[in-house]
Amino acid sequence: MSDFSFFLEVVVGGLLSGVMYTLVALGFVLIFKASGVFNFAQGAMVLFAALTFVGFLEFGLPMWAAFLLALAAMLVLAVAIERTVLRPLVGQDHMILFMATIGLSIFLEGFAQLIWGTRVRGLDLGISDEPVEIAGILVSQFDLSAAVMAAVLVAVLSAFFSYTKIGRALRAVADDTQAAQVAGVPLGFIWAVVWGAAGFIALVAGLVWGARLGVQFALTLVALKALPVMILGGFNSIAGAIVAGLVIGVSEKLAEIYLGPFVGGGIENWFPYALAIAVLLIRPAGLFGAARIARV
Amino acid sequence: MFYRDAGELKTSYAQEQAIFPVALDRRAVIGVVCAGALMPLVAGPYWLGSILLPFLILSLAAIGLNILTGYAGQLSLGSGAFMAVGAYAAVNLVIRLPMLPFPVSFALAGLVAGAVGLAFGLLSLRIRGFYVAVATLAAQFFIEWICTHIPWLVLNTPSGVVSTPTLFLFGFAFSSVPSRYLVAFVAVVVLALLAKNLVRSSAGRALMAVRDHETAAELTGVDTARAKLTAFAVSGFYCGVAGALWSFLYLGTVEIEAFSLHRSFQILFMIIIGGLGSILGSFLGAAFIVLLPVAIANAAVLFGGALKPDVLANLELMIFGALIVSFLIIEPNGLARLAVKAKERLRRWPLAY
Questions:
Q1: pTM
Q2: For chain B, which residues make up each domain, given as ranges?
Q3: I want to staple B254 with a disulfide (CB 3.0 to 4.6 A). Which of A15, A96, B162, B245 is the partner?
Q4: Domain residue extents for chain A
Q5: DSSP one-letter code for B252
Q6: Do you find a cis peptide bond into B45, omega within 30 degrees of 0?
Q7: pLDDT tens-digit profile of B318-350?
Q8: Do B318 and A274 touch (CB under 8 A)?
Q9: Count of A–B CB contacts within 8 Å?
């Protein structure tokens, strides 16, 4: 096999794994856009969603029923979070809210595993992981399906934001919370919707990642993979999350293969961060983030 | 009535500017320090070695993080990594340069960690807020990777886990539990007093100005870049010394698992529960976090030990998480604020106000 087609294969593989990062990062971006909260608990929500789905499957439910029930659980969770965590902390400093979501993530990790147990479970979505050959390049079928799922998800979300009343209210809150409230947008409801949507994304991400890694505690670490994607793309840009996810995915794979052997390997833990920070130093608000002007 | 700061006549600037200007506070601090020093006489090896020793060392790390996060407002998720830098530097210094007395080696190890902290602090000059938190997360992963991929750092030990040698000073071996406790105790008392002194100095006020409003601080003439770098360097130093003490006095080994992201979060929780921007809070939070698992385990035994260990571990996570959230909601200033409230109560007792 020629070097170039190997290179292409690495790039395509990276693009597809980047889509998986984007899936997780979208959940972060959504919540940050609508409420200014950097939700560290997104990883724990991914774990919670995946465990719930697999848990219902083990009761012998068909896949669609388990999906709907898990989705319902995520929506209940979203409302509960809005009531118990966000509402009492309204108007607090962003850092306080961030730390609250760290507490929330610890709680969710314990809660999810208390209900469903700590055992590692396999998850078979019925998509084969056999590579297929497209134009001379081997591509994982599973990754391809994940990419399609992510594309559908982004399309659904964009349509939701653009064409529904709730979506418009949501963008109004993101734009100017106070003005939206004056115009009569119910803030609590909007937040519950956003967290619900983030829960939905967590469920999809949980299924895709769970099928890849097995449904287990390590799923929470997926959130740590999404952080560099977010800082690279900017916290409040969905387009940024997509592009940054792809960039991170590709560069991570390339670095692993072409740089890794020289430094002893295992660089995938920090390389995306280093890349993201290098970009930050040039563009402090990320590739697509809106620069803020500091005022006294 | 019981606590009073009125009626104390200061007759010199030195008195006015003392670290603890109120006589009662001063006596309380001296009392606590004396009690701590005499602790080996009363406490058994379990309490001394497994509760008080980790409590003291983690308090030190909490003070370090509190200076950076609580005082200077730069959220750090990398304190575990800075502890690792201190631990690895200390073990290299102690083994490779045996002629240095160990307090000097530990101080140098702290300086190395401070320098690394400073290097990552440079990023905070360009980026702000959450981005800084993510940059410290990068520090955590990068330092973990460095520590596991450069054999020289672990003295070429194949397993990557270095056993720490016994510490000697003037021919005395610090190997018994009480002696190790006293080393940590002295280090913590000295460094805590220095920290207390730092945060009331002009450098400390600069940190708080940066935390409260960076642009306003800049406009009033605070050198914000210098303040942030100071915070990162000092925080790195404290965490580094804490890491060295943790490896040498508590674990007996230097290994990266002791300084993972989990440790960083643990220290962050200490200062959230104890109180952001409070030296006293760092101690209270550390005590709380060290004692809570012990209390939960004991409570489980009380309920007949019916809970399985994995259930217990998950319950512990849930209790921790719920506590963090409730502290942020009910008392964002943590246990330290409760201590201040108690003082107010004592001052006006038995009157209502």
A1: 0.88
A2: 21-259
A3: B162
A4: 25-220
A5: S
A6: no
A7: 988 998 899 888 888 888 888 888 888 888 888
A8: no
A9: 138
